Amino acid sequence: MTDKQKAKAYWKKNLKYLSILLSIWFLVSYVFGILLVEQLNTIRIGGFKLGFWFAQQGAIYVFVILIFVYIRLMNRLDKKFNLDE
Amino acid sequence: MDIQTWTWILVGLTFTLYIGIAIWSRASTTGEFYVAGKGVHPIANGLATAADWMSAASFISMAGIISFNGYDGSVYLMGWTGGYVLLALLLAPYLRKFGKFTVPDFIGDRYYSNVARVVAVLCALIVSFTYIAGQMRGVGLVFSRFLEVNINTGVIIGMFIVLFYAVLGGMKGITYTQVAQYCVLIFAFMVPAIFISIQMTGNPIPQLGFGSRGEDGVYLLEKLDGLHRELGFHEYTSGSKSKIDVFFITAALMVGTAGLPHVIVRFFTVKKVSDARKSAGWALLFIAFLYTTAPAIAVFSRINMIETVSNKKYDEVPEWFTNWETTGLIVFNDKNNDGKIQYVADASKNELTIDKDIMVLANPEIANLPNWVIALVAAGALAAALSTAAGLLLVISSSISHDLIKKIINPKISDKGELLAARLSAVVAVVIAGYFGINPPGFVAATVALAFGLAAASFFPAIILGIFYKRMNKEGAIAGMLVGILLMLFYMLKFKFGWFGGGTKSDWWFGISPEGFGTVAMVVNFIVSIVVSAFTPEPPENVQQIVENIRIPSGAGEAIEH
Predict the structure, then answer these.
(1) Backbone dihedral region of B18: left (phi > 0), alpha (psi from -120 to 50 degrees) or beta?
(2) Cα(B514)–Cα(B3) distance, rounded to whole angstroms?
(3) Which end of chain A is more exposed for a tag (fewer CB within 10 A), N or C?
């Protein structure tokens, strides 16, 4: 592979990771925490209504996990394409 | 010991620590002054970013706002954390690879235009000044309540401290001071929360505590919903805002967070691209400790507050009540002259007005915690306000000395001269910020929330398109930024300040509040940018090269030498 092809393949893979992770980001905050909040609120976990829990707790936990997953994925990708420093 | 002695001791100790760190890590070159020599460890940078980001608003006001608004307060929780996902995934690594000093640097180089650079500088200054005035006010508030000095004296003491370590230490000094400030503020936030959680539910983890049962065996949230119904408020766990507005406000806060210059610049301070990603992760983790605790504090303090005052005799209120009354932040007006406090939703019958800002500060007193805990909260609030003020000051001073003086007015200026200019502009900025802290224009509170809308409407699309859309040219970016920020300013002035004929809630476009309108302005910015760039020449070859280059992480080390 030439450098140019390599960079292109690397970028394509990066965009794929981004679209998957950002879909989850959208799902836990905008869908679970806002759009479907009433429906989810009929489900209860302990003292929490589920929709309310996502809006005030769950979404934040998922955000943290998403970033650390991305860090791992990209570190591996950097190694694979020999683009790490 | 009484609260005041404890407060003097803790505030004195922490301030000495900050100044000590500043002397130890003072900056001697512009590289150290702007970006700490690009040698900060990702965890240290994560800690500093967290302190930089969490302002007086996060520490003092946020839990209070949630406490009064319940579910509606979620917009701040999701909005101010979700933006870090965007930062880590879409901005930080590429801006670090680009490897300059400031956000206007990126805009100016990527769009090969000094007009774009100046537009970016103006946006950065507008956003930073609206924000910093609020911080100085927070410092004054804490001083006046806990140390019983005049609120203006408090602002001036705060000004001197910030001035000292920002001017001396630059980004290097600020970074290590912020690390210390994070530790102080998170400790101060968690200790009372854990105490109260144990007191009310027996569970030491506040995040779980507020979903547990209280002493009477009823779930806290159920009890609170019940109290709210009784007093005529909307249910705590369901909102009163429209769904579309909650959606748009959350989006504006997320995108605004990712577009704030004092946050973005922190990712220029690490060694490598992979470190930039890592520090965004650490930063969000450290922020999440406070942000997941805040809704718990909101519930605890709301229940405690209602149970302590509702329908109680005014003569028998606890001491904290009268203490806060003297600051004017609690106001009791016995409308029906029965000597009891009626706290209800109906404005014509309600006799008690409580400022949202006091919930976090008064919470330990309401729960009868020991005096040192109350003093600790004061020290934590000061740490939060000072760390953010320092970060913003640096953005203001580098915008002036680097983006305006070095890049436009006098490119031949020596490194020493530029460093002096940076320090002088920091001094001027502190004085202006202090002036606004002492004479707060009525619009400060309103504009701090709107600063996010402005950042979302101006920077975010220009940066994202600059990285992800190679064909994006200067005509498109400038047109987009101008249309975005003007549209946002128009909407804000119309519906917040009554210009252009004003308007009320029923006139809002699509039912979207000014706080959420940043999202609309951002979308318009994207559309204008793309359409205009399609009809104008594509960017020169060397700029397209830059874009290809920032997309791969290797070789970021070279940038250090530039």
Answers:
(1) alpha
(2) 41
(3) N
Q: Which helix (H) or strand (E) holds B475?
A: helix B474-497
Residue B136: closest CA among B358, B365, B390: B390
**Range B466-487 average pLDDT:** 93
Contact B81 A33 (CB under 8 A): no
Please say whether the beta carbons of B213 and B220 come within 8 A: yes
Q: Do B82 and A63 touch (CB under 8 A)?
A: yes
pLDDT at B444 over 70: no
In one-letter notation, the amino acid at residue A35 is L
Please check the confidence at residue B561 and state whether its pLDDT lies above 70: no
Which residues of chain A are within 8 Å of residue B273 when distances are taken between CB atoms?
85
CB < 8 Å to A2, chain B: none
Residue in B closest to A69 by C-alpha? B281
For residue B171, how far is the Cα from the chain centroid?
18
Q: Please state, in angstroms and as integers, the Cα–Cα distance from residue B130 to each residue in B121, B125, B136, B462, following that order.
A: 14, 9, 11, 21
pTM, full prediction: 0.91
- A48 and B274 in contact by Cβ < 8 A? no
Q: Decide if A61 and B211 are in contact by the 8 Å CB cutoff.
A: no
User: Which candidate, B398, B405, B466, places its Cα nearest to that of B112?
Assistant: B466
Q: What is the pLDDT of residues B417-437, one digit of tens each?
A: 888 888 898 898 888 888 877
pLDDT band at B480 (very low <50, low <70, confident <90, very high): very high
| Interface residue A24 vs chain B (CB under 8 A) | no
Asked if the C-beta of A27 comes within 8 angstroms of chain B's C-beta atoms, the answer is no
A73 contact B CB<8A: no
Min distance B441 CA to chain A CA atoms (Å): 32
ipTM of the complex: 0.95
Q: What is the DSSP track for B149-198?
A: --HHHHHHHHHHHHHHHHHHHHHHHHHHHHHHHHHHHHHHHHHHHHHHHH
Task: Go through the domains of chain B in sequence order and give each one's CATH number.
Answer: 3-304+360-561 (1.20.1730.10)
What confidence score (pLDDT) does residue B281 get? 95
Asked if A9 is an interface residue toward chain B (Cβ–Cβ < 8 A), one would say: no
What lies within 8 Å, CB to CB, of A10 at 6+ separation is A77, A81, A83, B551, B552
DSSP B240: S
Amino acid at B171: M
B interface mutation test: which of A28, A60, A79, A80 has the most B CBs within 10 A?
A60
The residue ranges of every structural domain in chain A are 25-85
CA pair distance A71, B93, nearest whole angstrom: 10
The SS3 assignment for B353 reads: strand
Yes or no, beta carbons of A46 and B292 under 8 Å apart: no
